[in-house]
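step 4 of 6: structure.
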Amino acid sequence: MRWTGRSGGDLTELRLRPAGPDDHPALWAMLEPVFRAGDTYAVDPAIGRAAALEMWCGGTHRAFLAEAAGEVLGSYYICPNQGGGGAHVCNCGFVTAQALQGRGVARAMLAHALDTARDMGFAAMQFNFVVETNTRAIALWQAYGFEMVGRLPGAFRHPARGEVDALVMYRRL
Amino acid sequence: MRWTGRSGGDLTELRLRPAGPDDHPALWAMLEPVFRAGDTYAVDPAIGRAAALEMWCGGTHRAFLAEAAGEVLGSYYICPNQGGGGAHVCNCGFVTAQALQGRGVARAMLAHALDTARDMGFAAMQFNFVVETNTRAIALWQAYGFEMVGRLPGAFRHPARGEVDALVMYRRL
């Protein structure tokens, strides 16, 4: 996959591949600051390494890594969002290495995730809990056809902003 | 708790109490036909007993039973719907013994669940996935102040009706 970020240089070629156990140190290095900050994911900021990796890669989740020049730049997981009659809708989570935020890594991962979701036979993708202050993510999801199909009033206690809404976002594939 | 169902008789006194391991046979007897039918819960209709009981009572879930005259009439669970900044919103699931549907058991359980949620310190209750054809449940949630805050288009494949929407319902406590 050709990386279309703005930085150029040795990150021109962004590669997406499935994550394996060997990638756990790199994954945790990206997840830990995001979860500790507690301002985008509804995850206990004190979560430990094993629980975080289980949340990201365990169960029905399939995790992928974005890397360039051997360096891990981001990751996403994909899983069925529900079972039974709801199993045709998938859910994804995304994390980008903090130094690289805003440079197109998330966009490339989202494009890959949409292709992966179709390959896996999913008919739609749903984000269950997008914190309304996470405006960069919301703008990206909207650019890729996601609609705000729900708003959860005061469902997130932001560490700096207090009670804010969370959005449910959805698109058919 | 005084049971206000329409049947009277020996079901007048409905009691709500925490469920324990001894209640698993009665719980599974109620859950199995509901999950097998696959028309209200987004759960694999082929789910096994252990997985169903884990889903209902395991992890962060607390399960309660409704009974009268020593007979189990229904159950609900309550749990945090998210972690971290979302942990002040709870989620619940309800099941009623099939022979007793429409007789006020779910209403009594919901009233108990709202009290329990407040006692546990939750600030809101959210139902993530209410199938739009489940009109009796929707009417009950609305009667108790839940609002439709989201609609997931085609997110449920109903065994008889095909693709239908699922609703996200929410109320502050």
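step 5 of 6: annotate
 - Strands of chain B lie at 15-18, 62-68, 71-80, 89-96, 124-131, 147-158, 162-172.
 - The longest strand of chain B covers residues 147-158.
step 6 of 6: archive
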